[in-house]
Automatic annotation (TrEMBL):
SUPFAM superfamilies in UniProt: Metallo-hydrolase/oxidoreductase
Membrane spanning residue stretches: none
Name the record gives this protein: Lactamase
InterPro entries: RibonucZ/Hydroxyglut_hydro
Record organism: Candidatus Jacksonbacteria bacterium RIFCSPLOWO2_02_FULL_44_20
Amino acid sequence: MYLYFLGESGFKIKTERATIVIDPPHKNTGLSQSALSADIIVVSHASQTDVGRVTESEKDARPFIINAPGEYETRGVFLYAFQGKNDTVLSLIKADNLSIAHLAGISEILDDKTLELFEGAEIALVPVGGNGVLSPKLADQVISQIEPHIVIPMNFAIPKLTIARESVDTFLSEMGAKGLQAESSLYITKEKLPHEETKVVLLQVKVL
């Protein structure tokens, strides 16, 4: 499985059988992307997402769009979408024998019900930049609740972003990962998961 960061809460995930695009950034965020292709599109908050930027990955096959709570299965991907606060949709993605929690829009530690849904997810995509989402300190606490093998920060300050966010450096300091270098992508398999402690992976914003 490959993971790429598109800015804000946007990601592109390539599994063995499918390409998933989560929250392709809307132009009103200041972030521009070239055309994206996907088999599955996940929308957690419509106002900051531009589904029109995404085309089908196969000729004559429209992307499967998930924008409401429910359980979904397609192309070897199992996706569980849950209603969050502020009209957001949280999702748990299971593919390639891995589980990924996408915690879009959360701004406080998880209550017991939400924690039950995401506890034990192997990879957590977590907002860290404040201003309507988790602050760096609260993000650290949520990560301690879930205890993932890998955490990837999102919703932090990047060039051209029109939404005010804190620098990711504050979060990295909270996690004891100060000075961590960003990577262009993450390739991960079940066998490659770290087991000693939660590993922070910082991804560069990728124009695909």
